[in-house]
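RECORD TYPE: inverse folding
INPUT: structure tokens
STRUCTURE:
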């Protein structure tokens, strides 16, 4: 019979504990990955309305997003940039102002600039953006309260050439939607922050919200063509049209000024005639009376 060995038993216990800890760590990472993947999928498929506040350095931009999941499983989305938290109505735009929108439809992704009298877009064959988590990413998960609700605090570390790129996600434990997303560079500097607020999962969509503006001129982005080059061409066309609009506006202003000047001149003449007419009328009356008196005196 083999003698009892304390060292062998201790080694087996340590090995067992190590296996349990490893399994626990793997399970925790799987849970974190599952929570984040589910949230990313919902963000790309859930019918909703949400406001996004995007911060890059000192620049803060707000967007309003409408998204609808159709019965056939397709998803439509329209995102519009806000101005001071409000939508800009195209009919109320001034020369040089634009409404920026991004449409995701069956035809792909269309970036649209709506001006005072024009609307131009660039269409590419891109679907709804869904974050893809590579298998080599390190994913950890914690728990915290954010904006009054329980959240999963998920950290994603992606290997890079000089360290790790880090992304932080706060996922609502109730709705499973992302509430906050932060991205950092390898030195820990914040690159971009997106806060999602005012979720409405049963919204009333404005009529025609997923349809491109009437009269929009859409340029298809073809293979090998850079979107930046096409955007520069569209901006050059817009500058030419803006110059024509300014010329038309200046001509209209000139006509209006001439009309106002003419109206003012006529009014001034009428006033002068009114002031001169009264003394002339008195003089005529005096002359008529004097003539009558003279004629009456001559008869006598």
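DESIGNED SEQUENCE:
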């Amino acid at each position: 019979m083999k003698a009892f060995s304390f060292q062998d038993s201790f080694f087996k216990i340590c090995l067992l504990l190590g296996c349990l800890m490893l399994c626990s760590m793997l399970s925790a990472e799987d849970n974190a990955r599952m929570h984040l993947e589910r949230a990313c999928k919902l963000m790309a498929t859930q019918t909703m309305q949400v406001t996004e506040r995007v911060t890059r350095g000192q620049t803060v931009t707000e967007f309003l997003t409408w998204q609808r999941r159709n019965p056939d499983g397709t998803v439509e989305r329209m995102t519009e940039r806000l101005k001071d938290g409000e939508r800009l109505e195209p009919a109320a735009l001034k020369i040089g102002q634009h409404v920026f929108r991004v449409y995701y439809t069956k035809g792909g992704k269309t970036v649209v600039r709506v001006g005072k009298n024009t609307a131009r877009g660039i269409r590419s064959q891109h679907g709804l953006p869904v974050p893809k988590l590579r298998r080599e990413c390190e994913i950890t998960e914690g728990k915290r309260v954010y904006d009054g609700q329980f959240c999963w605090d998920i950290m994603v570390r992606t290997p890079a050439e000089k360290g790790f790129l880090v992304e932080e996600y706060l996922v609502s434990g109730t709705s499973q939607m992302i509430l906050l997303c932060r991205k950092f560079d390898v030195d820990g500097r914040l690159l971009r922050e997106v806060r999602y607020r005012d979720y409405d999962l049963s919204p009333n969509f404005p009529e025609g919200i997923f349809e491109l503006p009437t009269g929009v001129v859409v340029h298809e982005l073809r293979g090998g063509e850079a979107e930046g080059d096409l955007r520069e061409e569209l901006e050059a066309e817009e500058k030419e049209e803006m110059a024509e609009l300014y010329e038309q506006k200046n001509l209209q202003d000139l006509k209006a000024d001439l009309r106002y000047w003419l109206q003012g001149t006529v009014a001034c003449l009428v006033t002068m005639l009114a002031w001169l007419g009264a003394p002339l009328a008195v003089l005529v009356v005096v002359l008529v009376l004097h003539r009558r008196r003279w004629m009456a005196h001559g008869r006598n």
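NOTES: The helical segments are 6-45, 227-299.
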